[in-house]
Amino acid sequence: MTHLHITGWVLGFILLAISYAMYKKGNTKAGKIVHMILRLDYLLILYSGGDLITPYFNGGSLMAEAIVKGVAGIWMIAIMEMILVRLPKEKPLKVLWIQFVIALIILLVLGFVRLPMGIQLG
Ligand code: HEM
User: Fold this and answer.
1) Which of 6, 12, 56, 95, by CA, is between 20 and 30 Å from 49?
2) What separation in angstroms does the CA of 27 have from each of 66, 72, 79?
């Protein structure tokens, strides 16, 4: 399941970059198609993240950190979506990119350093 999760979020960042580049070039149609594929990938991230988080709802010492990890993950999906919705409308993105960096740091620290699974087979 960690592999599915990693596949989900790495693919998400790649699709975000491609869609971003397409919109930026003025190729709205290609940007929209990649954006739609990214929306399907959100489901993969949510499904794998949801599966990974369930064992933490046991009142154990890592429950709070796992909840923060999950909330930050949903926040990151919202940021990615807002970037791609605002970009073709030529609205400012600076505040979103700042949030992107903050959310990414939280996700990487909690995902790889604090929570125990990291990259695991199975
Ligand atoms: C774009 C969004 C997300 C990013 C960039 C992200 C990033 C990460 C990273 C780097 C890890 C550690 C390595 C791994 O197993 O993949 C991880 C694990 C995890 N993520 Fe996410 N994640 C995202 C969304 C979510 C969501 C939406 C949830 C919950 C609903 C979630 C819950 C978890 C849990 C529970 C773990 C396992 C921690 C462990 O047991 O070690 N993530 N995530």
Assistant:
1) 95
2) 39, 31, 22
Q: How far is CA 120 from CA 10, 21, 52, 72, 84, in A?
A: 16, 33, 11, 21, 32
In the numeric block, which tokens belong to residue 109? 């620290």
Residues 45, 48: Cα–Cα separation, whole Å = 5
* Cα dihedral across residues 3, 40, 45, 9: positive or negative: positive
What share of the chain has pLDDT > 90, as a percent?
A: 87
Q: How far is the CA of 45 from the centre of ligand 1 (A)?
A: 8
> 28-85: per-residue pLDDT in tens?
999 999 999 999 999 999 999 999 999 999 988 999 999 999 999 999 999 999 999 9
Say how many Å lie between the CA of residue 54 and the centre of ligand 1.
12
